[in-house]
Design a protein that fits this description.
Heme iron utilization protein-like fold; 2 domains; nine-stranded antiparallel beta sheet; 10 helices
């Protein structure tokens, strides 16, 4: 069947009748479509297609007041409540840096946008060229719905009857053989790092994927750990009120929570943080490997716990609360001592 808007709408409606609780991301996979195509099928009824002036729209999100920011990948959902203030851009990279909403935006991956009304739950939703979600902004009962309506009217696309030009997901980077890597030079460069942000450049310099870099790390700088060890660290962080940082990303957005985590709940395959301002949903059966990683900086070693899927994609990362120029928290290091000793 040709996937016209009409046929997509028909398939989506039939699936909702069969399984009314199915989430749209899962429905898209079941239908062999993208999430953006399913959202687009609701345009003209309860959704509105936006024009592509996403930077200007984001600069106005502060008018919405208190909202919920959502960024996810296949195996981790990161939800943080707060107000979008201090939204700024340098070319195609954007920053939102506040104590509550903390984002890194990669605008080349923001290709489609919609105002979405799901049973009176209002949101702005943004998608990559392959139709996968990069970021969503949900209104709460404390948000300004009139400001939302004004923004929808202002950024509404002129043509509301568009078939989306969905592109194939880019091919996964092929990992080069270990024997082709200048391992000694790579390890020396790792030990000489001065900033955690330089790690990405280090990978590019040596042509490494993240998980390959962890396998080839200098002795003692990357230790593979168990899921139970990760959950114990998070449980201890909760019990000792140790503030941490939780990073989850899509191709177009990295979302960060900084603060304490309190209520930890296991629900089937999902390990959850369910706090008033921050929720995390981590799908355990999507995890292939977990690493305790040490990176040198000008302020001393920084330790992270990094979680990867079988494709080598980053699912979620955990750090101790810190800022540049300030050494890593001793409380965070104390939580990791038990992992080191296991």
């Amino acid at each position: 069947m040709e996937n016209t808007i009409t046929s997509i709408k028909h398939q989506w409606n039939n699936l909702k009748i069969e399984n009314p609780k199915l989430r749209i991301r899962d429905a898209a996979k079941e239908l062999g479509l993208s999430e953006a195509e399913l959202v687009n099928a609701g345009v003209g009824e309860h959704n509105t297609l936006l024009n592509i002036d996403f930077k200007e729209l984001l600069k106005e999100t502060n008018t919405l007041g208190y909202v919920m920011a959502l960024t996810r990948n296949d195996f981790c959902v990161h939800e943080r409540k707060g107000v979008y203030t201090k939204v700024g851009f340098n070319a195609h990279v954007g920053l939102v840096v506040t104590p509550d909403i903390d984002l890194r935006l990669f605008m080349t991956h923001w290709n489609f946008g919609f105002a979405v009304n799901e049973n009176d739950r209002l949101s702005f939703q943004f998608f990559d060229a392959d139709g996968s979600a990069v970021h969503k902004i949900y209104l709460t009962d404390k948000s300004d719905a009139k400001a939302y309506e004004r923004m929808v009217a202002k950024y509404r696309a002129d043509d509301q009857d568009q078939q989306l030009n969905i592109q194939p997901t880019p091919a996964k980077e092929v990992e080069k053989p270990d024997h082709e890597v200048a391992v000694n030079a790579f390890q020396e460069a790792w030990i000489a790092l001065q900033d955690t942000h330089d790690f990405h450049g280090l990978l590019k310099d040596y042509g490494l994927t993240r998980t390959q870099a962890l396998r080839l790390a200098p002795d003692g700088y990357a230790l593979q750990i168990s899921l139970s060890s990760l959950k114990q660290v998070l449980t201890n962080a909760s019990e000792t009120s140790t503030p941490i940082m939780v990073f989850t990303g899509s191709a177009g957005c990295i979302q960060i929570h900084t603060g304490e985590i309190k209520k930890l709940v296991q629900t089937g395959p999902w390990f959850n943080v369910l706090d008033p301002e921050f929720n995390m949903h981590l799908r355990e059966d999507g995890i292939d490997s977990i690493w305790l990683v040490k990176k040198p900086t000008a302020d001393g070693l920084v330790h992270s716990i990094e979680v990867y899927d079988k494709e080598g994609n980053t699912i979620v990362q955990f750090f101790g609360k810190r800022k540049p120029g300030i050494p890593e928290s001793e409380a965070w290091r104390a939580l990791l001592n038990d992992v080191n000793n296991n």
